[in-house]
Amino acid sequence: MGSNSSRIGDLPKNEYLKKLSGTESVSENDPFWNQLLSFSFPAPTSSTELKLLEEATISVCRSLAGLWTVFTLGGVGSKAAAAPEVSSPLANQSLLLLLILANLTDAADAPNPYRQAIVSFKNTQDSSPFPSSIPHAFQINFNSLYMALCEQQTSDQATLLLYTLLHQNSNIRTYMLARTDMENLVLPILEILYHVEERNSHHVYMALIVLLILTEDDGFNRSIHEVMLKNITWYSERVLTEISLGSLLILVVIRTIQYNMTRTRDKYLHTNCLAALANMSAQFRSLHQYAAQRIISLFSLLSKKHNKVLEQATQSLRGSLSSNDVPLPDYVITFFSSRLLQAGAELSVERVLEIIKQGVVALPKDRLKKFPELKFKYVEEEQPEEFFIPYVWSLVYNSAVGLYWNPQDIQLFTMDSD
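RESULT FIELD:
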């Protein structure tokens, strides 16, 4: 095996590969198989060589994908669905295969080795030894992986891979959170959420959970307010000539909440959006005027929606307190209201802001209680495979190039789950 060597450029003309991907049958005892396996070629060591390999094998891969159309779940269908346009069919098929393998359930006596590898792989620049307890260890160039993920977030499978890596591989998560160009990753995620009407629910979930995982880190929540963006063309509600990444993130998450409240009414989506906002809230800095306005509008909307519940809770709280124990929100509101009344009726916005700033300094701190900082952490459900396995196979059904599955025999997921 491997006794004959081929150059990458010769692969499109290799007679054995042509026969492998052809339409003629080859018996299992045919010498062809030994001759095919005797060929080898140098493994690519750079992105340029990888591109050459992909270009050299694209015709063979397409032919092989075409052969799969005869292996549907229930036999050959009457008409194959139109294959989606993908810039790199080989990379797309490989990613789908990786996601399938990573989401296989553990065996009774051994964990899924593919998931173990995804959880533990490291950067090529990391020279520290792997623990002996990790049997399926490998290294990959994190910078190349990061750049590829930034470029491919328009596809479900790329966002699902990003979620998997951020959630399960601490090496990747640490590396990404240390990047100084996080806007290259966050902006495509925000664009997915912004066009929520055009995306399937699973893709929106994955994008939102990626944001939730990122907002668990205080460093991320601080740094996004230091990154200034100009001319966000896909944001159509208002012209944003200059805005921080943090303010834009707030705007998009609030828009997703409001869309969910009026359209889908999905409790899971609602909870995760609010959790992401809560995680960021302690680090809000120099918010864009429009972002601050939308926060107030959201609070007003939520207050009106749950006003009766709030009133009942307040009355119950007041009934259990003595006359000296004034609830803190009432105390603070009363304090500032009295100072504003003393200043007169005709007040400009600037004057009100000045009075509030002076009041903050004068407010008695002994009457205040510091509430614990709100922090929410994403946790998978007890049986995540019930969501992810059907999701991955629905992606294979809808996104795999050249594969046709008889829709009448699909039982793992519903046909409207794309």
